[in-house]
Amino acid sequence: MADAKNAEKRPKFRRTQKIIDGYFQRSFAVHMLVLLVLVILIFYMFHLYTFSTLMQLAEVRSGDPADPIRLFLAENLHRANGIFFITTGVAIGVFFVWGILLSHRVAGPVFRIKKQIAEVLEGKDVRDIVLRKHDYFQDFAAVMNDFIARYREAIEKSKKG
To answer: CA–CA separation, 40 vs 30, rounded Å?
Structure first.
């Protein structure tokens, strides 16, 4: 029931400010980048190992360090490295931006819920917490809305009685 109520109140706009909690969002993106770089390094080591093994096999097969197959593999190793590094640079940029955008779906709701709790503690009359459709913590916002409604009722009863 709370989800249906919140669905009607959800804003039809998108937040333009993407950095809500700079420390959290940047650290989240950096953690994603560290994991990405580790995976890329593992693939790169495999890539180097494969090419060097093939070049050694070509040299052993012919006994000539200038074997055409070995030279072909060495030349293509440089091309493959170039492609690999360009792809890595693009992937790091994409993952950083994606990390910021994904963390925005966490930081925005946390910021809004913290703000509402602070307003309740200050004694202000607060509205229901409304999150965007794809934000995380929808269930927590619904529970907080129920809490705020009961808190309002308790305040009204204490004022009357």
So the answer is: 15
What crossing angle do the helices spanning 138-160 and 68-121 adopt, rounded to 10°? Answer: 10
Flag whether 135 is in a domain.
yes
Give the tokens for residue 81.
């490295």
- For the entire predicted model, the pTM comes to 0.61
Q: Which residues of the chain have pLDDT under 70?
A: 1-16
Residue 67: phi and psi, rounded to 5, are -60, 135
Q: Comparing C-alpha atoms, which of 37, 45, 6 is closest to residue 129? A: 6
Residue 148 and residue 128 in contact, taking contact as beta carbons nearer than 8 Å: yes
Give CA–CA dist 121/117, Å, rounded. 6
The verdict on residue 37 lying in a domain is: yes
Placement of tokens 């907080």 in the chain? 144
Structural domain contains residue 54: yes
Question: Alpha helices, DSSP H only, in 10-67?
Answer: 22-62
